[in-house]
Amino acid sequence: MKFRDYFTNEFHTAEDHYIPSLRSRYYRSTLANAIEAIKEIAKKHKGVIKHVDDVRGEILFDSQKFSANVIITSTSYTETAVDLLITTYGILPLGKGKKIIEQIYTDIDKKLPFKGVSLYKG
Q1: The domain containing residue 112 runs over which residues?
Q2: What is the pLDDT of residue 122?
Q3: For residue 60, what is the enclosing H or E element?
């Protein structure tokens, strides 16, 4: 992690992120199954679901410690990519967003069959 990452409240995942644990993850699942799994994970983190867009595959939820924007992209009928944008609440975050993303990915790994990390980077 870079020094500035300890002082930022926003963390996101991407296909070619410089932190390997924050790269996009792919699962063998349909879009509908992935959305249901994310809803269950939001409840596990005591999150309140603010918005669900089934067409675009976007879920917004808030918990006491963070706000999450989950983007689920269907690359094929049986494959989905999951990206996260986490905004933490607090004055001095100390990289908590990275830990939250890693925890959410661990929870998704338990619910959906994992396929790979950053499969389609250019």
Answers
A1: 3-117
A2: 59
A3: strand 58-62
Cβ atoms 80, 73 nearer than 8 A: yes
Q: In the structure encoding, which two tokens stand for residue 62, read together?
A: 């808030």
pLDDT of residue 93: 84
Residue located via tokens 């790994």: 109
Query: Residue 122: inside a domain, yes or no?
Result: no
- pLDDT at residue number 2: 80
Residue 104 lies in a domain: yes
Domain membership of residue 70 (yes or no) is yes
The number of folded domains in the chain is: 1
Tens of pLDDT, residue by residue over 93-105, are: 888 989 999 999 9
pLDDT at 24 over 70: yes
Q: Specify the residue for token string 């989905």.
A: 80
Cα 39 from chain centroid (whole Å):
12
Residue 93 lies in a domain: yes
Q: Report percent pLDDT > 70 for the chain.
A: 98
Query: Which tokens sit at 86?
Result: 């986490």
Task: Look up residue 7 and give its two tokens.
Answer: 């002082």
